[in-house]
Amino acid sequence: MEVEESDILNFNDSIRSIIVKLNHYDVADDLWYHQAAEDFWKGVGKFFYLVKPSETSFERVEEVPNYFNEAWPYFLLFILLENVLLWAERKPIMRINDSITSLSHGLAHECSKLVFKAIESYCYISIYTKFRIMDLPWNNPTTWYLAAISMDFFYYWGHRASHEIHILWAQHQVHHSSEEFNTAVGLRQSVLQGCSFIFYLPMALIIPPSLFITHQHFNLLYQFWIHTKAVKTLGPLEYIFNTPQHHRVHHGSNIWCLDKNYGGVLIIWDRIFGTFASEKNNEEIIYGLVVNRPSFNPLQLQTFYTSYVFQRFSEMKTWKLKLCSLFYGPSWRPGSPRLGLEEEKIKVGPRQKYDIKIPTWCNLYILVHFCVIIYGYHKMSSYYLVLSPFSILLFVVYILSSLTSIGMMFDNHPYACVLEVLRCMLLVTAIQNFEFPALDQTVLTVMEVFFLLSGLFWFLKCTKVIQIIPKEKLK
Ligand SMILES: [Zn+2]
Ligand SMILES: [Zn+2]
């Protein structure tokens, strides 16, 4: 079949109109693509802190763009690029089960931010308003750089506390729970990680709230791309900046990697405070937790360690020991120093990664439903200011239960199909009985049919009309 020249022109026009519409460019301006390219590179630059203070300083908190939310297309682009590099180097690429689990944690963390951000803003602004010790101009580059450095300094201490205090580690371990090390892991965060804002509150004594929020975004964006094995070294930058090489050590469960390289953007804090370790060329890094409890179910990964901490707490005989079990390090035992004895730490050697191979169609099913969940989250987050707290709560419950259902499917859990039937049928009922002003009628009809067919399929599977046999199960 021959492709007409007019077809190609029509295709180019369609792509152009989509880009112009998505970014609100001026259609009449023939140089719109220059603007698009400039915006694209500015978006990439935000991941490397390559931004101009004059373009990222705002007087009021409400004016600060949600840089992190805007970065989702770039996250996907980085993930794609990393896999192309790994594939070109003939190294293993991402596993779909582990990567979607990481992204699920990222999405659950974003939902929790809807609550924690409000508390964080309230506390920070209250301290800044009542107790600040100086008035720094919000539009001065010196204030901007001071905010960037103090954000990274307090990140170091907050991160270090998350590793050295057992009850905080119970949350932060989620970020370390993957046995892989890739950019998707950069998005794997605990739902309760938002509580860590208390470590940044001293900044409120001098740094204006709008700059605090701006640098919180950039500090987090920088930490996304350092989760990769595709970049070996960055040469002299390794002395000053946190890099993929340094962060690989941080994620290792080998004894020499434990409690090392806490830095966010700068590695100098680790060098100053004695927690730095370099990567060893002759030793393979084993990723994942020392006491591994692998699963693809985000709900289980988010909660299992907290119940372990409380089990340890109840086993202690005295109140002093009980408090030590909560506030000392994860390796602490009665009679040992705060962070435990080196010789008592568990030696982790090469181990088989947890993997359950489910059929390709099942992976595709999960992928499509995961995209629908992201679409739902995107709609909810852009409308959440006009939604009632109850509607937001329902939406968050929908997202979390959907992610759990997906995780249980990856785990080939016996009740996964029952949960999926319930989830799909509840969604059909919700579409039929509630109003969704953010979605037009065609989208709602497609969604209704989509969830109805999905629910019907899993109902047939529950009743053993259809069965899924995993290809292979590895432990
Ligand atoms: Zn960590
Ligand atoms: Zn990390």
From TrEMBL:
<feature type="domain" description="Alkylglycerol monooxygenase C-terminal">
    <location>
        <begin position="362"/>
        <end position="436"/>
    </location>
</feature>
<dbReference type="GO" id="GO:0005506">
    <property type="term" value="F:iron ion binding"/>
</dbReference>
<keyword id="KW-0560">Oxidoreductase</keyword>
<dbReference type="GO" id="GO:0008610">
    <property type="term" value="P:lipid biosynthetic process"/>
</dbReference>
<dbReference type="InterPro" id="IPR051689">
    <property type="entry name" value="Sterol_desaturase/TMEM195"/>
</dbReference>
<dbReference type="Pfam" id="PF04116">
    <property type="entry name" value="FA_hydroxylase"/>
</dbReference>
<protein>
    <recommendedName>
        <fullName>Alkylglycerol monooxygenase</fullName>
        <ecNumber>1.14.16.5</ecNumber>
    </recommendedName>
</protein>
<feature type="transmembrane region" description="Helical">
    <location>
        <begin position="360"/>
        <end position="377"/>
    </location>
</feature>
<feature type="transmembrane region" description="Helical">
    <location>
        <begin position="383"/>
        <end position="401"/>
    </location>
</feature>
<dbReference type="Pfam" id="PF24858">
    <property type="entry name" value="AGMP_C"/>
</dbReference>
<feature type="transmembrane region" description="Helical">
    <location>
        <begin position="443"/>
        <end position="460"/>
    </location>
</feature>
<dbReference type="GO" id="GO:0050479">
    <property type="term" value="F:glyceryl-ether monooxygenase activity"/>
</dbReference>
<dbReference type="InterPro" id="IPR006694">
    <property type="entry name" value="Fatty_acid_hydroxylase"/>
</dbReference>
<comment type="similarity">
    <text>Belongs to the sterol desaturase family. TMEM195 subfamily.</text>
</comment>
<keyword id="KW-0256">Endoplasmic reticulum</keyword>
<feature type="domain" description="Fatty acid hydroxylase">
    <location>
        <begin position="145"/>
        <end position="275"/>
    </location>
</feature>
<dbReference type="GO" id="GO:0006643">
    <property type="term" value="P:membrane lipid metabolic process"/>
</dbReference>
<keyword id="KW-0408">Iron</keyword>
<keyword id="KW-0443">Lipid metabolism</keyword>
<keyword id="KW-0812">Transmembrane</keyword>
<keyword id="KW-1133">Transmembrane helix</keyword>
<dbReference type="GO" id="GO:0005789">
    <property type="term" value="C:endoplasmic reticulum membrane"/>
</dbReference>
<dbReference type="InterPro" id="IPR056853">
    <property type="entry name" value="AGMP_C"/>
</dbReference>
<keyword id="KW-0472">Membrane</keyword>
